[in-house]
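Narrative summary of target 7.
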Amino acid sequence: MCESRCLLLTQHPLGNLAFGNSYCKACGDRDPKACEGVTPFFDSNSCAEADELRNCIYAAYGNPFKKPKWQKHFAKEPWYKPNPAFDESMLSKVARQNVTELKKLGCTAVRAKANDGTPAHPLNERGGWSLREDLDGDGMPESIEAEKAQLRVGERTTETGLESWDYENGDIFIVDLDRSDKLREVAILRRGDDDYAETTFYRYADGKLWSLGAVENWVQPGELAGDGTVSETSGQCGVTLVVRYAIRKGELQEIERNETGKREPDCEESACPHVFVAQADGRFRYVGEILRDLVGSSARARQALPLAAADAHDGKIVVRISERESETTFLDDIYLSVGGVRVAPSACAAGPSPSPPAECVSDGLMRRLEYGDDLLLEFMVGRVPHRAEVTLWGTGYYVRR
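Modeled conformation, tokenized:
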């Protein structure tokens, strides 16, 4: 275990390893300096190191990672065994505590570099956020409360899907998406594992509160143009993709997509398609990817993506599978496993038909998703027990364009 700090972080609190005697006790017989106050753990608020250590813990439990950066980084470790069925519930209590602490440290460093210098909004005594700002432009500030899975503005509420760690590691801002109107919006920033970040925008106007949508970025107020648009930037393998959204009919809609740069020939891209799950308010939450690294028809295989019992609303789980990269995905035999019971998409559960959807049966007839395509699937699951395991299964592969 002493050969890797990743493995040590699964069993020992970070603070004890960095400043206490845990490292000495665990590795003193192998490392003479272990009991002299010299440890491989940092004692500064370094964003890069905090993120590396956090992902180090995930790697110890087999996180296959979406980003080539981490795939390559941990592939060199003899103990690293990617597990497509990885889920955060696999982490030990100590490992989860270390992840939370490292997220705090990483987020603090990121916020310190925000171009407007705005500090993180402090948590209230209930572990949420409380603000008073004028959102609808009537000159009277509204009471804004974000707690548990809800955002409340005045007497209006909407679901956010936030959990306790989202408040500890995220942030909230008041932004002005469009300076030509009198409105201002609430922006909630969330971070996940593997450097995933998401900003969701909420609008309050005419006594109504709703989500405008989300972008896969850690958006800061100073980065907004103020012209009613929001940009989403991603990059891998030497190619940068910028997607611009504008507010249309009360929601963020894509208006422009630009790809720049030259693809690096030896770079392995993360897999697609992306998977989103509908929340109670109709907003879709990113949950991961499926068919990860299954490149080419010869790699065709079945793969799983863990979901959650809380993803069920009104007796159903709605999944959106989106092809967002320059590749073609071929999907077959898609279903949910809920507490060990197979649940087919509603379009498949109606029974045999002359032309069932291609994704219903593992028969070699594939559903094809090109760049920009979405596949919406509804699963009637009824009441799902709180502790039931929910997993999305799919068979297929993808081909780079």
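The helical segments are 5-8, 14-18, 22-27, 47-60, 68-75, 93-112, 164-169, 346-349.
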